[in-house]
Amino acid sequence: MATTAIDSTSNAVFDDLQKSVKQPTKSLGKDEFLKLLTYQLKAQNPLKPQDGQEFASQLAQFSSLEQLTNINKALEAQSKNFGLLSQAMANANAPNYIGKSVKAASDKINFDGTKPPQFGYNLASNAASVQIEIKNAAGTVVRTIDASSSDLRNGEHRLTWDGKDSNGSNVPSGQYSINVVAKDVSGSLINATPFSFGAITAVRFKQEGTVAVVNGIEIPLGDIEDISM
Predict the structure, then answer these.
(1) For the segment 21-48, what is each residue's pLDDT rounded down to a tens digit?
(2) Cβ of 138: how many Cβ atoms within 10 Å?
(3) Domain 98-228: assigned CATH number
(4) Which conformational region is residue 38 in: left (phi greater than 0), alpha (psi within -120 to 50 degrees), or beta?
(5) Which of 23, 94, 142, 190 has a CA between 20 and 30 Å from the CA of residue 10?
(6) pTM, rounded to two decimals
(7) pLDDT tens across 61-107, in order?
(8) Long-range contacts (CB closer than 8 Å, 24 or more residues apart) made by 60-65
(9) Listed residue (227, 158, 166, 142) closest to 194, CA to CA
(10) What gap in Å lies between CA 62 and CA 56, rounded to an integer?
(11) Could you give the residue range(s) of every CATH 2.60.40.4070 domain in the chain?
């Protein structure tokens, strides 16, 4: 069968469209939609033009896409402005927290070489055993503590570490972390989340957000669970 002029034109338009698409996208944007619609009008058979009703439907889809795109941009801008406002309000109030006692979700503790650091953990349910591992900055366990029977019940428990390793020797000053391993009578793990507590001694405004300094540890304001006098 001989190739008609209309078929040749359609093929040429399709080739141009293929060349214009450099990389596939996950969704069809308004610019791509308009480009495809334009190519469709250029490539249609003059003897069988686009149905008026279908064409109007496509134009309505394009109009809806444009409106949804504008609404989405407006919502994104509003969300960004609200976030900046919330951050500014938090920064303005942050200095008022200095001197307040707080409890925060954190597994970090700081040892200054003399004062025994304090920490705590929450148990999701009663445990048969709780073992606290204290690790140095390199991740090495320097001390393992078995919780007493009174610290096996579900709820909050607060402890003090004497700053010694498993051999009874003093550890160097620095930052340490705690890992709590809790098990029930069948040996299954129980959810145990560590926390730090103490007074806020400073507030720092950093690029990644505002932090409170508690026992020498920087804690994001969002991680603070409790504030008291």
Answers:
(1) 555 555 556 666 667 667 666 666 555 5
(2) 6
(3) 2.60.40.4070
(4) alpha
(5) 23
(6) 0.58
(7) 656 666 667 777 767 766 665 555 455 666 667 677 788 888 999 99
(8) 61/33, 62/30, 62/33, 62/34, 62/37, 65/29, 65/30, 65/33
(9) 158
(10) 10
(11) 98-228
